[in-house]
Write a structure and sequence with these properties.
alpha/beta; Rossmann fold; eight-stranded mixed sheet; 20% helix; globular; binds S-adenosylmethionine
Length: 208
């Protein structure tokens, strides 16, 4: 699940929207176990209070650990991913938690993010620099971006992640990508996850 290129599909995808509605607000898959790595991002959990609920999108949402967390915190949230299998798991997770999410099967290389649509755009562990201008346009004024991914330094730590520098942040790069925005929170360096070291940058910024 780490390298963007692993998931690139050759054919053009149609955008498929699938809205999951909980049945009576009750989980219907209570026996399904969510794996440990499926826990929401600790950065998101710790700082969700900085993100006022509204319309959100989780880009390259994978199995929806952060999408579902945002739905549980009052967001009306869409999950976009190129993997149907991942989105299926995201919907199952949403059902098991009794929350509503919308999943969109799409290639973000060509997906047209609607201008001014979102109060929050989340991007966790998916770096495509060409997406940044689209993300910026997709946010309302005062909208927030929460972004976390690996730094080039991660390669020498042995923590799983991309090897190709195209998918890794250079020092201070994430900060520079959001220059001119109000930076609410930024950290960069080596942090521990599950007792292992990883090199990441994390940001919450507001569109002025
Ligand atoms: C490392 S996973 C991160 C998943 C999720 N954001 C998380 O933190 O749990 C990267 C995700 O990017 C998705 N992906 C890769 N290329 C994509 C593309 N061109 N458009 C949309 N999703 C893509 C993959 O399917 C995968 O789910």
């Amino acid at each position: 699940m780490q390298r963007k290129s692993l998931f690139r599909l050759p054919q053009t995808l149609h955008f498929v929207r699938w809205v999951h509605e909980p049945i009576g607000g009750m989980p219907i898959m209570t026996k399904r176990k969510i794996p440990e790595e499926g826990q929401p991002s600790s950065f998101l959990r710790r700082h969700v209070h900085l993100l006022p609920p509204g319309r959100a999108v989780d880009l390259a949402a994978g199995e929806g650990r952060n999408t579902v967390f945002l739905a549980e915190h009052g967001f009306d949230v869409e999950a976009i991913d190129i993997s149907n299998a991942a989105l299926r798991k995201a919907r199952a997770l949403a059902r098991s938690r009794g929350v509503r999410i919308e999943t969109i099967l799409a290639d973000l290389d060509s997906y047209p993010i609607e201008r001014g649509r979102y109060d929050l755009i989340a991007d966790f562990y998916f770096l495509d620099r060409r997406l940044i201008p689209k993300m910026k346009k997709g946010l309302k004024k005062g909208g927030k971006v929460i972004f976390e991914t690996y730094l080039t330094a991660n390669r020498s730590l042995g923590f799983p992640g991309p090897e190709n520098p195209a998918y890794l942040l250079r020092p201070n790069e994430l900060l520079r990508l959001f220059q001119g925005w109000r930076i609410l929170l930024y950290r960069e360096g080596i942090f521990k996850e599950g007792g292992r070291k990883k090199a990441i940058a994390s940001l919450i910024a507001e569109k002025l």
